[in-house]
Amino acid sequence: MVWLFNGNILPLRFEMKQGRLETITTRIISTTFIVVALSVFKPFGLDAWQWQAYVHLVALGVIGFFICMLTDIILKYVVKMPRSFKKGAEYIIRRNLWFQLINTPLVALGICLYRHFVLSDRVESNQLSVVNFLETLAIIAFCSFAIGLYWRFKFRSKYLAMELEETRLLNEQLKEIQSEKTSEKPLQQTPESTVCQSQELTLTGTTNESVTLQISDLLFIEAVGNYVKVNHLRDGQVHTDMLRVTMKQLEETLLPYPMVVRCHRAFLVNLGQVEQITSHSGSTQLLIKHCHESLPVSRSNMAQVKSAIRQGEN
Question: What global pTM score does this model have?
Answer without folding.
Answer: 0.58
